[in-house]
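Obj.: predict assembly geometry.
Materials: sequence records (below).
Method: joint structure prediction, all chains together.
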Amino acid sequence: MEPSIRSGNWVNINNMNEEVNNKVRDIVADVLQKKPGDLNLSLRSRDVEGWDSLRHVMIIAAVEDAFGIEIGLDELMAIESIGDLCQVVENHQK
Amino acid sequence: MLLRKITIAQLESFVRSEEYRTMNELPITPLRALSQANNPKARPDDVVLTLAMSEEGELLGYVGALPDWAGSIRCAWNSCWRVKEGAPAEVSMKLLYSFLNDWDRKILLADMTPHTHKLIQQLRICTHRSLHGIRCFYRLNLARRLGKKFRNRILRNLAGGAGTIVDGLLSLFVCIAIPKKRVSGICIEEIPCPTPELDSFISRHNTHQPAKRLSADFRWMREYPWISDREEEKTGMEGRYYFSWFTERFETHWIRFAAHAETVALLGYTLRDDILNVRYLYAANDTIPNIGRFLLQQIRTDRLLSSVITYHPGLTAYLQSRKNFLFCRKITRLTALSKKLCSPDEAESFILQSGDGDCMFT
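Observations (raw structure tokens):
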């Protein structure tokens, strides 16, 4: 299991929708100009070279567009890893 | 990482605290805290400073707000946003999101860096506007500039001497290029600050400003600037603050132009070191040449001034057309206004003046 800490709770990334995970990972890879295979869901911005504040908002904007959602500020505050972002997308799709 | 929010009511005790005195980097100065505490448009529970702290208690970054009103809507200008070098993106983003959350995304930005501009554009919550202005150079003040460049006393004196000669020649140039001339047919009066009697005049000329300022705001700005030129106020902590705190010279001036005892224009400008910065101008278009002439006379008589900055379209055009400067540079200011603060129609026409936000304070 590849855990990610979010708001003090453990989130099981394995239970998350594979399709969402892949799509989000592709978006992050595209914005950061990395290979999707180099990114795992527990990666945080601090772990990835080039993931600065501008790229961060570009990722959020691209994810919102791709999934047709609007991520709230409370949710944005809680996003620390790619897995967190996937979880937020999934919550919107429920 | 922990976010710590500081309200207007807590600011003054924060800058007096032991914690503040021992911080490696200061997130605010006592001058700015005092000014914020006296903001006539703020409420005691307004969050005006958010600190990002590491678990070890180290300051990682901070974001500041300047409360205001856009009509009947509470809003805030972003007054600062800084993160420690090398801090991860999540620090700056959490600070920004926290600021947006505290102010329900009703924000204004008066002067963004290109990086912040791109970032705010990506958020898609603001209407963006670039202010196009001009900086005209009339002198170079080389003696002052060169004198500071060298540590060696002999070199410093030589450079200072050479600078003085060039400055003298340039002063001669200014006297020839800007002949002494009285602005005729108009009464010019320096006032300490706009009075409530001038509010109706200001209101007639600020219809497109989203956060309108009147005499009470200008009085507050004059009484509580964020920058000091009083050497005796230095405490040794200045090096620990990133933004401006002390300068050699900082003055705020207000000029009323009247014809037949009626106010026809109101000009507010700051003198910071050797720059005259036009901050507010409320005037009909036909008075602009008189204001331009007045500013040129200021340049002529105040030998410490080297350049004038304005973003006012009429003044920009006037100064450019005179061609009596050494050289000039086109300048651009990046501003933004939350879409929550204006209708789509208003978004097309909103105007920010150069002094808006926290700019008049600095």
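Conclusions so far: Residues 18-32 of chain A form the longest helix (15 residues).
To do: check interface contacts against the pulldown list.
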